[in-house]
Write a structure and sequence with these properties.
heterodimer; A: 111 residues; mainly beta; six-stranded mixed β-sheet; five-stranded antiparallel β-sheet; B: 112 residues; seven-stranded mixed β-sheet
Chain lengths: 111, 112
C-alpha cells in the first residue's frame, strides 16, 4: 500500500517568514495530494490540493508543489501569521477512495 | 451545499460498554464515506471506508465495526470498548465527481 512520510513534525517560524512542509509518497499510482489544516480540537479543513497533472498550485499565501519523478510534494506558506498556527497534514490518494495521511506538522508562528 | 453531521459530539463510556457513533451527509448522493480515529496529538488512522450501501472496507483489524444502512448514513460500532479506543473519531466524505474529502465535526470519545 501507499506510505506517506511528512517532515518536519514541528516547525516554528517568526511572523512574516515562510514555512515549508514536505511529504514523500511511495505509490507512483497516487494522483491526488490534498493538504489539511487542523486547529486544536477541531476537524481537519482542506486548504489546498493538487493533482498529478499539475506541478504547482497557488491560493493567496499558500502554494503546493509536486515532483512526480521524486515522489514528493510540499506546502509553502508565505508571510505567515499567528492564525496559521495549527497542525498540517498531507495526504495521497490514487483512486479518490482511499486516502493515506502523513503524521502531521505542528506549525507555530511566533508574533 | 453539502453538510456532514456527527453525533454525539462528546462521549464518556466505561470499558466493556457498547458504542454507536453516527454520521450523516446531506446534499449529495452516493458519497464515499470514511471513519478515521485520531489519538491525542497523533495523526489520522483510517478505520473503515464505504463506496456504497452495505459495502464496507476495513483498514485495521480491531474491536470496531461499521455499517452503512442508507446511502448517506455511516455508523461506527463496538460491542465492548477498550481503553485504547479513546480518541477523536472523524467521519468524512468524498463525492460529486471530485476527490475532495471533507470531515465532519468529530466525536471525542473517552473510555474510562
Amino acid at each position: 500500500g501507499e506510505n506517506v512520510e511528512q517532515h518536519p513534525s514541528t516547525l516554528s517560524v517568526q511572523e512574516g517568514d515562510s514555512a515549508v512542509i514536505k511529504c514523500t509518497y511511495s505509490d507512483s499510482a497516487s494522483n491526488y495530494f490534498p493538504w489539511y489544516k487542523q486547529e486544536l480540537g477541531k476537524r481537519p479543513q482542506l486548504i489546498i490540493d493538487i493533482r498529478s497533472n499539475v506541478g504547482e498550485k497557488k491560493d493567496q499565501r499558500i502554494a503546493v508543489t509536486l515532483n512526480k519523478t521524486a515522489k514528493h510534494f510540499s506546502l509553502h506558506i508565505t508571510e505567515t501569521q499567528p492564525e496559521d498556527s495549527a497542525v498540517y497534514f498531507c495526504a495521497a490518494s490514487n483512486t479518490g477512495n482511499q486516502f493515506y495521511f502523513g503524521t502531521g506538522t505542528s506549525l507555530t508562528v511566533i508574533p | 451545499s453539502q453538510t456532514i453531521h456527527q453525533w454525539p459530539a462528546t462521549l464518556v463510556q466505561p470499558v466493556g460498554s457498547p458504542l454507536s457513533l453516527e454520521c450523516t451527509v446531506e446534499g449529495t448522493s452516493n458519497p464515499n464515506l470514511y471513519w478515521y480515529r485520531q489519538a491525542a496529538g497523533r495523526g489520522l488512522q483510517l478505520l473503515f471506508y464505504s463506496v456504497g450501501i452495505g459495502q464496507i472496507s476495513s483498514e485495521v483489524p480491531q474491536n470496531l465495526s461499521a455499517s452503512r444502512p442508507q446511502d448517506r448514513q455511516f455508523i461506527l460500532s463496538s460491542k465492548k470498548l477498550l481503553l485504547s479506543d479513546s480518541g477523536f473519531y472523524l467521519c468524512a466524505w468524498t463525492g460529486g465527481g471530485t476527490y475532495e474529502q471533507y470531515f465532519g465535526p468529530g466525536t471525542r470519545l473517552t473510555v474510562t
